[in-house]
Design brief:
Elements: H1 7-10, H2 40-48, E1 53-57, H3 61-69, E2 74-77, H4 81-84, H5 96-112, E3 118-122, H6 132-144, E4 149-151, H7 158-167, E5 172-177, H8 183-186, H9 196-212, E6 216-220, H10 224-233, E7 238-242, E8 250-253, H11 255-258, H12 280-293, H13 299-302
Parallel strand pairs: 1-2, 1-8, 2-3, 3-4, 4-5, 5-6, 6-7, 7-8
Helix pairs in contact: 3-5, 6-7, 7-9, 9-10
The structure holds 3-methyl-2-oxobutanoic acid (KIV).
Length: 306
């Protein structure tokens, strides 16, 4: 069976011929997909055979569909949309309603092209910190908008919340290191987990999150050695690095950054994949290829040694 996008169209399969749909789901208007949807078991299979997981942010229907067509496995509807779509100074001002709107848009686009990507909806600041019940209510909004998983930032106090959501059937991606929603408390966008004490604490938080049932963990701006150690310690929680070196189970970038749509200075961990590409899709394909073959990121260039 081909894993190529739209291979089923070329093969001339007739509409509704492929599989049954459960619980009275309406059949799609065009041929059903031949690509296997990305799922937690499939991500675990990739991890077990050492294949890197690719993730990009997307905030609307079209870019999400193009990222899927380029072979990106996971699409993060990140609250970075506060900066790249809304012009905010940080992610702190993003609301749950805004996240719902963008998650719905992304999912609608993916469904139209019968995409296979795994969609992660980001819980915004203030939507999960109050209590685990508040987190469940907010996660429900994003899951009902079509997300497959929700993401939340922080370690320690979040462990109980993660367990509460996972036990109720909501897959969770955690986020440690530089957590942008707490940028004011952290004193800026700076490398986290430096020094033995901070590194030990991050490792302890990561282990607890895996024990609580988190199946993905974004590690942002964490030294290469620490990110690699955390990855080795977490066989069922897949580390996705951004500024954390190549030792993680996968990589994520903010789409606008990797397409070079940034008038300011790019963070060190970004590569502009539009350089040498003739289309957005080609740039995303180049990103997928570079992550899979291990040519991106380059530790000495895109990450911190300690
Ligand atoms: O909001 C976001 O886009 C993120 C990524 C930077 C990981 O959290």
């Amino acid at each position: 069976m081909s894993d190529q996008p739209n291979a089923h169209l070329a093969a001339g399969h007739s509409a509704h011929a492929a599989t049954a749909t459960p619980y009275g789901t309406l059949p799609t208007a065009s041929p059903l997909p031949q690509r296997r949807p990305v799922s937690l078991p499939r991500l675990q299979e990739m991890r077990d055979r050492g294949e890197k997981i690719t993730m990009l942010t997307a905030y609307d229907a079209t870019f999400a569909a193009v990222a899927d067509a380029a072979g990106v496995e996971c699409i993060l509807v990140g609250d970075s949309l506060g900066m790249v779509c809304q012009g905010l100074a940080s992610t702190v001002g993003v609301t749950l309603e805004t996240m719902r709107y963008h998650t719905e848009s992304v999912v609608r686009g993916l469904r139209r092209v019968q995409a296979s990507a795994w969609v992660i909806g980001d819980l915004p600041f203030g939507s999960y910190q109050e209590s685990r019940e508040q987190a469940l209510r907010s996660a429900t909004v994003l899951m009902q908008a079509g997300a497959h998983m929700v993401k939340l930032e922080g370690g320690g106090w979040t462990t109980d919340t993660v367990n509460f959501l996972v036990e109720r059937g909501i897959p969770v991606c955690a986020h440690l290191g530089l957590t942008p929603q707490t940028v004011h408390a952290l004193g800026g966008y700076r490398v986290q987990g430096r020094g033995n004490r901070a590194a030990d604490e991050l490792m302890q938080h990561a282990r607890a999150l895996q024990d609580a049932g988190a199946t993905m963990l974004v590690l942002e701006m964490v030294p290469v050695g620490l990110a690699t150690e955390v990855t080795k310690a977490l066989p069922t929680c897949h580390t996705i690095g951004i500024g954390a070196g190549k030792g993680t189970a996968g990589q994520v970038l903010v789409m606008h950054d990797m397409l070079g749509i940034n008038l300011g200075k790019n963070p060190k961990f970004v590569r502009n994949f539009m350089d040498g590409s003739t289309s957005v899709r080609a740039a995303m394909e180049a990103y997928v290829k570079a992550v899979k073959e291990g040519s991106f990121p380059v530790d000495a260039e895109h990450a911190w040694a300690d």
